[in-house]
Amino acid sequence: MSHGVTTWRQMPRQEAAQLLQGSEGLDPRGLCTPEDVQAMCKAGRCGVIEDEDGAKAVIVTTTKNGVLWVNALKGQGRQDMTAAADRMLVSIAKAEGLRAVALQTKRPGLRRKLEKRGYRVTGWIMSKDTK
Predict the structure, then answer these.
(1) Contact 96, 63 (CB under 8 A)
(2) What is the DSSP string of 84-127?
(3) So what's the pLDDT on residue 29?
(4) CA distance 24 to 33
(5) Is 70 in a helix, a strand, or coil?
(6) Separation between Cα atoms, residue 93 and residue 90, nearest integer Å
(7) What distance in Å separates the CA atoms of residue 107 and residue 20, rounded to the nearest whole number?
(8) I need a surface site. Which of 13, 21, 57, 119 has the fewest CB within 10 A?
(9) Which candidate, 57, 61, 51, places its Cα nearest to that of 1?
(10) Greatest C-alpha distance within the chain
């Protein structure tokens, strides 16, 4: 895991949408479609974080009620970008005077990593199959 310099740059929405292809299956609600990913990119702020080792993560965020919401995040490469993404997201939120960073995930491993970084579960997503 790199602990070096991490940079953020805005990226064109279409480029972000292309890099996020296939990530719709990670929606904890199971409702996200490829069209939804396109819409998230169109409505949100798209960017990429990169570390000095060349690892990167594409991120789409929106701001609502003083919170920087992570709508989509997809790492690329074999390196874990959790810590680098968290540092960058917190930095952006602080610079904009926001009170929190938030996201939803269905990945237990990511939840554990984020809890170690100070995140906490603040709700539950409930669903029931009807078939």
Answers:
(1) yes
(2) HHHHHHHHHHHHTT-SEEE-----HHHHHHHHHTT---------
(3) 62
(4) 6
(5) strand
(6) 5
(7) 17
(8) 21
(9) 51
(10) 49
CB 19 within 8 A of CB 66: no
Q: Of how many residues is the chain composed?
A: 131
Count of beta carbons in the 10 Å neighbourhood of residue 16: 25
Structure confidence at residue 26 as a pLDDT band (50, 70, 90): low
Q: Measured in whole angstroms, how far is the alpha carbon of residue 93 from the centre of its chain?
A: 13
Strands 67-76 and 100-102, by their bridges, are parallel
pLDDT at 94: 97
Half-sphere exposure at residue 59, Cβ-oriented, CA atoms within 13 angstroms: 26
